[in-house]
Amino acid sequence: MIKFFKKIRLLYIILIIGLFIIFLLSRNWLNGSGDVSYGVTFSYQQAGDLGLDGEELFRAILDDLGVRKLRLAAYWDEIESEPGIYDWSRLDWLLQEAGARDAEIILAVGGRLPRWPECHYPEWTKSLGEAERQQKLLEQVERVIKRYRDTPAISAWQVENEPFLPHFGECPEPNKEYLDEEIALVRSLDQRPVVLTDSGELSVWVPAAKRSDIFGTTMYRDTYSERLKRYIHYPIEPGFFRFKRNLAGLFANPQKWLVIELQAEPWGPRPFQELTKEERDKTMNLAKFREIIDFSRATGFKEFYLWGVEWWYWEKEVNGDASLWEEARGLFNK
Description:
The chain has 13 helices and 10 strands. The strands form 2 sheets. An 8-stranded parallel β-barrel has the order 1-2-3-4-5-6-9-10, surrounded by 4 helices. The protein has a two-stranded antiparallel ribbon with strand order 7-8. β4 (154-159), α7 (176-189) and β5 form a beta-alpha-beta unit. It has a single domain (2-332), classed as TIM Barrel (Alpha-Beta Barrel), CATH 3.20.20.80. Helices cover 43% and strands 16% of the residues. α1 (2-25) crosses α9 (238-248). By secondary structure, it is α/β, with parallel strands linked by helices.
């Protein structure tokens, strides 16, 4: 029994020393501005919700800001709003416009995709049982991949969005076995890398990272908690993300690690267009934008997709404040 406890103590000491070494290797370093690259996530649906012209905004992203890395989503409820009737026109146009400018696109497929309500299932699927809905989704994913796999602008397929983050969004419970079916289907249809994403602050990364060729984390500093009914500032330093990456790297080995969602818009108790400027400023403004860019460069990551391009344009066009748009332009025109 004494020998047993000695072994346990030795293992505990080794674990503590190992974690301390990982911590030391995770100390912050600041990447130079020339060592990092930036893209954006764009949602045509979000543009419409803000009363903006989606085509005008998308062209401004490409031609005015000069963005050449994009994450787009193949929203199921947009493509097949009625069973068996498909409308590819919007996604076709986005891919054509981006491709004409040699942009590089991560295309997200599945049911859970960027932007609220997170899961973008067509209304008609609500009457289906779980097994039938899952089969219909696999069929939809297959249609998307087959339609766009000859599109050279697409660099990778993202399968679902933060699939291991429960209790967020209007979504079914996470299902690892079904997710693996989706990933296997995508891999069988095309050889491009598969992207899996996870929450930077609320998840452990390993289940997503071990399934991915490219792993993408979110990175937020100021949010609003529905559960706590108050604003939250995460008391973390850049080294937290590097430590987490190093720790997850003991169990997973994706080809690339990137920040798929870098906070660059407000997060409040209601959609930001319903908040006052003072409320929006609590979680994002020009000063906070600059702060999170500096923060992100010290995390050790080198590729970032900013979240909020529609908001910058909304501030410029609706409120006459172009400061965020102009600040962002500097990131993409180095």
